[in-house]
Each structure stands twice: as structure tokens, then as C-alpha cells.
């Protein structure tokens, strides 16, 4: 595929830009002023895959260029009568495989870093997009937040849509924000539940979405263990950094499968029990407003020690950049399963590789969320609600098939699973572009 593109490089020059961008590449973050180390790290990993595919430098650079960037100002009258202006962005990368899709973030330093070729890895028919508003939502009343969201919809309504670009929740944008988004858009374009995903279950959301990323992570681990001949989920000890949506669901499902979750942490502390924590009890304890470290079913642990806690499977499920080279030299597990976005830096990755520790990359591992978002969209198009078991079964199938694709590239090309994931995604995007043609 790469050589075909090269041969006709001249004719397809304009189209190459389209091809490229794929989903959300870090370069867009730079262009939008808020470059981040996570963006740079993603770029490093992406370049490694591009090198494997033998794309020339010009093509590689073009691959980092989004198809469209929109920047708007939202003028909102606040509760006290003052006028505030918020900057908002939407960046669309590549839609060769289907409508753009990606998160919408509300944050004081909106950076468009969390973007990648995830939908291509999961083989769901979307291209990538990302957007956000530069705002600290904690400083806004609910009414102000709603007004701002509705202004955003009005400002970007011409470039989004059920078959155009489908935003999804991200940092500080939840089901409530998605419900406002859907409502406002429908005022202009008619009933359109499929314009956003992550809506409340009672308002065209999907059953199974809340647990989807943690559940997908569990399916991913199961497939990896099988491929590595490491046995079953029940045979392993797990340590999990982060006990929010993803970490707590992964912990619960691994525990239900008979696995021993020996340590978990959150932003405030950690708890460990080498015989395995009772995750059901622990979740009830936390839901009652108690801290992890006060859980009577385990001993308190310094949260800094979670990543070095002895286990078979280490699951970072909190924040990015936590496994740099120093930490990578100390961690004490057989495999690292990246449920969080960007937990391992490129330097940390090298150390893990040298130590023979397998890394299941975030771009695949946490793809369960976007996959069930896709299922939500399909249900919206059908105007039909699937049973939760149906959602979970289909998610299992997607995660298993995606793993098989990664594993086969990993074996055939002799590259790490992370590189394999990017290779799979790049090949899918490239193939779709080529088959669509360039005129
Ligand atoms: P969340 O806010 O529900 O939970 C985050 C957890 O991490 C909390 O328990 C918090 O206390 C903990 N945490 C924060 N800083 C920490 C620190 N310094 N040390 C230890 N723990 C810390 O978030 P989430 O939805 O569970 O997302 C977790 C990660 O997974 C993020 O990287 C997110 O981008 C990624 N992710 C989430 C989804 C999803 O569907 N929720 C999908 C894809 C990727």
C-alpha cells in the first residue's frame, strides 16, 4: 500500500493529507497551542509504526495534519450579568473510514492530546476528531455550563452531525452535557440522538456504557494471557492504579472472574492484601465515602508504591506519564496493561521492552469505551435499545478480534504490541483512503 501511494504521490498529493491525519494526531495539539508531553509521546509511538511501514518522511508529516480545524468564540452571559467569552475548538482528522468521532473536553488548558487511531484499531467505522472549550467548569454554575454548551452546539453545528462528526464525553463532560448537546442540536436539525454518544441511558444512551472501558480491559487481559500462555484471569495477581470508572470496573470484573486484586490506589492513597481484596466490599466502602486506605480488608499502602507492588498484571488506570524510565526499572510484574491514556512514556517503554515486560497499549486496551459509544450510535440509528448482555457480548467480540489483529502483526513484523496497534490502524486508514480513490 505504501509503495502504491508513493508511485502516484503527485496525483494524490492533496488526498494524502486526508489520508493522514487519521484520528487525532498529536501534531494538532501543537497547532492548537497546547502541545503536551502526552501528545509528543503519542507522536513518538506513531512514528515508530510509520517507520515500520516504510512511509517516506513527507508522507509521515502529512499524516500528522488534520483535515479541518475549527476555532470559535462562545459569548455567554453569566448569572451575574457579566459577559464571558470562551474559546472552543474542534479538530477533525480523517474520515475515510466513516464519520469523525471523538471527545469533547472542558478544561482550562484545553489540549487536544488524547487523540489517536483508536477507532481504526477497534475496526469500528469512524474517523477521528477531538474538541474542547477552554474553561474551568468548576467555576461555572450549572446554568452557565448549560448555556455555554448550547452556544457551542450553535457555533459548530455545521461541521458535526450524525453522519458527519459525533462528539463524546471526555474530561469534565458527562452524560448531562451530552443530553444538552443532543437537545440543542435537535432544535436545529430535527430529532438526532446519534449526534453525540455518552448520553444518559434513559435518553438514548446505551446499557453497558458505564462499565465498557473496564470490561473491555478485562477482555483484553484475557486475550493477552491466552496468547502468552499465562493461563486464565483467575490465575493472576493484579495491581491497579486508579479506582475511578475504569479502575473500579476492571477490579470488579477481574475479581468476579476469580482473579486476585492484590493492590489498588487512587489519588489519596492505596490498599493492599496479598491474598486478594474483596472488591465488592471495597466498592461499597468507597461508595459510603470512606478512603481506600481505611478499608479493613487490607493494609494501607503508600499510593506511590502501587506501581512497584509485586503482581502478575499491573494496570495503570489513572493518569498519563506515570511509567517513566526510573519507574519502569522498578516495576514488579509480568505484563503492563494500559487502561489509562498514555501511562508509559517512550523512555519508560524502552526500559520495559529491555526487561522483557509485555505492554498491552492504551490505544487498544481502553478501546471498550469508544466501541460501546459506537454501539450507542448504532442503536440510535435503529431507534432500538439492545439488552446489556448483547452489548457486552458484542464488545467481547470486538476486543477479541482487535487483539487477534494486533497479535498477528506483532508476530509477523516482530514489533511490540504498541507498534503493532499503530500499524494496524495506519493500514486500515490507508486502505480505506486508497479504495475510496483520490478524485
Ligand atoms: P476517573 O476520574 O473516574 O478515575 C480516575 C482515578 O484515578 C480516580 O480513582 C483518581 O483518584 C485516580 N487518580 C488520579 N490521579 C491519581 C494519581 N496521581 N495516583 C493514583 N491515582 C490517581 O477516570 P476514568 O474514567 O476511570 O479514567 C481513567 C483513565 O482511563 C484516564 O487516563 C482516562 O483518560 C482513561 N480512559 C477512560 C475511559 C472511560 O470510558 N472512562 C475511556 C478511555 C480511556
Automatic annotation (TrEMBL):
<dbReference type="InterPro" id="IPR006096">
    <property type="entry name" value="Glu/Leu/Phe/Val/Trp_DH_C"/>
</dbReference>
<dbReference type="InterPro" id="IPR006097">
    <property type="entry name" value="Glu/Leu/Phe/Val/Trp_DH_dimer"/>
</dbReference>
<protein>
    <recommendedName>
        <fullName>Glutamate dehydrogenase</fullName>
    </recommendedName>
</protein>
<feature type="binding site">
    <location>
        <position position="101"/>
    </location>
    <ligand>
        <name>substrate</name>
    </ligand>
</feature>
<feature type="binding site">
    <location>
        <position position="373"/>
    </location>
    <ligand>
        <name>substrate</name>
    </ligand>
</feature>
<dbReference type="InterPro" id="IPR033524">
    <property type="entry name" value="Glu/Leu/Phe/Val_DH_AS"/>
</dbReference>
<feature type="active site" description="Proton donor">
    <location>
        <position position="130"/>
    </location>
</feature>
<dbReference type="GO" id="GO:0004352">
    <property type="term" value="F:glutamate dehydrogenase (NAD+) activity"/>
</dbReference>
<feature type="site" description="Important for catalysis">
    <location>
        <position position="170"/>
    </location>
</feature>
<dbReference type="GO" id="GO:0000166">
    <property type="term" value="F:nucleotide binding"/>
</dbReference>
<dbReference type="GO" id="GO:0006538">
    <property type="term" value="P:L-glutamate catabolic process"/>
</dbReference>
<feature type="binding site">
    <location>
        <position position="118"/>
    </location>
    <ligand>
        <name>substrate</name>
    </ligand>
</feature>
<dbReference type="InterPro" id="IPR006095">
    <property type="entry name" value="Glu/Leu/Phe/Val/Trp_DH"/>
</dbReference>
<dbReference type="GO" id="GO:0005739">
    <property type="term" value="C:mitochondrion"/>
</dbReference>
<keyword id="KW-0547">Nucleotide-binding</keyword>
<comment type="similarity">
    <text>Belongs to the Glu/Leu/Phe/Val dehydrogenases family.</text>
</comment>
<feature type="binding site">
    <location>
        <position position="213"/>
    </location>
    <ligand>
        <name>NAD(+)</name>
    </ligand>
</feature>
<keyword id="KW-0520">NAD</keyword>
<keyword id="KW-0560">Oxidoreductase</keyword>
<feature type="domain" description="Glutamate/phenylalanine/leucine/valine/L-tryptophan dehydrogenase C-terminal">
    <location>
        <begin position="206"/>
        <end position="437"/>
    </location>
</feature>
<dbReference type="Pfam" id="PF02812">
    <property type="entry name" value="ELFV_dehydrog_N"/>
</dbReference>
<dbReference type="InterPro" id="IPR036291">
    <property type="entry name" value="NAD(P)-bd_dom_sf"/>
</dbReference>
<dbReference type="Pfam" id="PF00208">
    <property type="entry name" value="ELFV_dehydrog"/>
</dbReference>
<dbReference type="InterPro" id="IPR033922">
    <property type="entry name" value="NAD_bind_Glu_DH"/>
</dbReference>
<dbReference type="InterPro" id="IPR014362">
    <property type="entry name" value="Glu_DH"/>
</dbReference>
<feature type="binding site">
    <location>
        <position position="245"/>
    </location>
    <ligand>
        <name>NAD(+)</name>
    </ligand>
</feature>
<dbReference type="InterPro" id="IPR046346">
    <property type="entry name" value="Aminoacid_DH-like_N_sf"/>
</dbReference>
Amino acid at each position: 500500500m505504501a509503495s502504491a501511494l508513493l508511485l502516484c504521490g503527485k496525483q494524490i498529493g492533496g488526498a494524502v493529507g486526508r489520508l493522514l491525519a487519521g484520528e487525532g494526531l498529536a501534531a494538532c495539539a501543537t497547532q492548537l497551542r497546547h502541545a503536551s508531553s502526552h501528545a509528543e509521546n503519542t507522536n513518538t509511538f506513531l512514528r515508530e509504526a510509520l517507520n515500520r511501514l516504510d512511509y517516506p518522511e513527507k508522507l509521515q508529516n502529512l499524516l500528522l495534519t488534520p483535515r479541518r480545524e475549527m476555532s470559535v468564540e462562545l459569548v455567554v452571559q453569566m448569572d451575574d450579568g457579566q459577559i464571558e467569552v470562551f474559546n472552543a475548538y474542534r479538530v477533525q482528522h480523517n474520515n475515510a473510514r466513516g464519520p469523525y468521532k471523538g471527545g469533547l473536553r472542558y478544561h482550562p488548558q484545553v489540549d487536544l492530546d488524547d487523540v489517536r487511531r483508536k477507532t481504526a484499531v477497534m475496526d469500528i467505522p469512524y474517523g477521528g476528531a477531538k474538541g474542547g472549550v477552554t474553561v474551568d467548569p468548576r467555576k461555572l454554575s450549572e446554568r452557565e455550563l448549560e448555556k455555554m454548551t448550547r452556544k457551542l452546539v450553535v457555533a459548530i453545528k455545521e461541521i458535526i452531525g450524525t453522519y458527519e462528526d459525533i462528539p463524546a464525553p471526555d474530561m469534565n463532560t458527562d452524560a448531562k452535557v451530552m443530553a444538552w448537546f443532543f437537545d440543542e442540536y435537535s432544535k436545529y436539525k430535527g430529532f438526532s440522538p446519534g449526534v453525540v454518544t455518552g448520553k444518559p441511558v434513559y435518553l438514548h444512551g446505551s446499557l453497558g456504557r458505564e462499565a465498557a472501558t473496564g470490561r473491555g480491559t478485562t477482555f483484553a487481559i484475557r486475550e493477552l494471557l491466552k496468547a502468552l500462555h499465562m493461563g486464565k484471569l483467575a490465575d493472576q495477581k493484579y495491581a491497579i492504579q486508579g479506582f475511578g470508572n475504569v479502575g473500579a470496573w476492571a477490579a470488579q470484573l477481574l475479581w468476579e472472574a476469580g482473579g486476585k486484586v492484590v493492590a489498588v490506589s487512587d489519588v489519596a492513597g492505596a490498599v493492599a492484601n496479598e491474598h486478594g481484596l474483596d472488591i465488592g466490599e471495597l466498592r461499597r466502602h468507597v461508595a459510603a465515602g470512606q478512603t481506600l486506605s481505611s478499608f479493613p480488608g487490607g493494609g494501607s499502602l503508600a499510593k506511590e508504591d502501587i506501581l512497584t507492588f509485586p503482581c502478575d498484571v499491573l494496570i495503570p488506570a489513572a493518569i498519563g506519564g506515570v511509567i517513566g524510565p526510573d519507574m519502569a526499572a522498578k516495576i514488579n510484574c509480568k505484563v503492563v496493561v494500559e487502561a489509562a491514556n498514555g501511562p508509559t512514556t517512550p523512555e519508560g517503554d524502552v526500559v520495559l521492552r529491555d526487561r522483557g515486560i509485555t505492554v498491552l497499549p492504551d490505544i487498544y486496551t481502553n478501546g471498550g469505551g469508544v466501541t460501546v459509544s459506537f454501539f450507542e450510535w448504532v442503536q440510535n440509528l435503529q431507534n432500538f435499545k439492545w439488552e446489556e448482555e448483547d452489548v457486552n457480548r458484542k464488545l467481547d467480540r470486538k476486543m477479541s478480534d482487535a487483539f487477534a489483529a494486533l497479535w498477528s502483526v506483532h508476530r509477523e513484523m516482530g514489533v511490540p504490541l504498541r507498534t503493532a496497534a499503530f500499524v494496524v490502524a495506519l493500514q486500515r486508514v490507508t486502505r480505506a483512503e486508497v479504495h475510496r480513490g483520490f478524485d
